[in-house]
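Section handout 9: paired folding examples.
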Amino acid sequence: MVSIDKEIMIKAPVEKIFNFVIKSSNLVQLWPSLLEVNNEKLLPNDGYSARWVYKMAGIIFKGKSQCTDVAPYRWISVKCEGTVDSTMTWTFRTKDNISTKVTITLDYQVHLPLLNRLAENTIIKMNDRESELVLGNLREFLEKN
């Protein structure tokens, strides 16, 4: 199991950030490797479930995700199943009325039977960089809009 933990400060109210991030289809605007989100449905816990298509290291992955735990304006936990099983947790900590610290934690496991250690390390590094990029894109998008 691999874990990635990244955080960023965004000059936007926590409500705006939370309401954007919780909707799976919005992440396509931020996540370069996330090619498609479809079949999105609102769940009783006010989170979403969806199907997704993701491209990593030239390989297309398909799967489904579901918000398993939602604490409005505090955190969102999303369970993803497919070639890559993961749990993605978004945490939001308001610093004042205009700034929010956003943390994304990814815990995942890649199920590729022939994946050697070198390829695994490459994918880990790619995901680490991509997590930083996603948070940077989130900040840029929400501070402009």
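Moving on to protein 2 of 2.
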Amino acid sequence: MSEAQATIEVLLVEDSPADARLTQEVLKGGDVRKHHLTVVRDGVEALSYLRREGPYCDAPRPDVVLLDLNLPKMDGREVLKRIRTDPALWSIPVIVLTTSGAEGDVAGAFAEQADSYLQKPVDLIAFTRIVEGLVA
């Protein structure tokens, strides 16, 4: 397997700088496969990245999207809906990674065909295990 094939392209859609930084740190350390992480801060930017528009014209196609639900400009629910209705994007796995554990949010994410739904734990060790498990 070549070096490029071994690298996982991860798109993190997260508006919280603290959560984005924590995810980056977890992926840097620990026992995770080689990856390249790109962070975008809102739903509009996420779709621009995925569609390779504007400054993202040379962006690599992500192998997985980690998507927060509560985002500025366009929330994660709408981003997920647009990914799943776009023939060029629908096959990208989307994992909802959010603080909400509300039944409506979980059901809504799966109704829009999220591949997985993970509630961000407040405990650092539990959060580390979740993130490492996503790219292991």
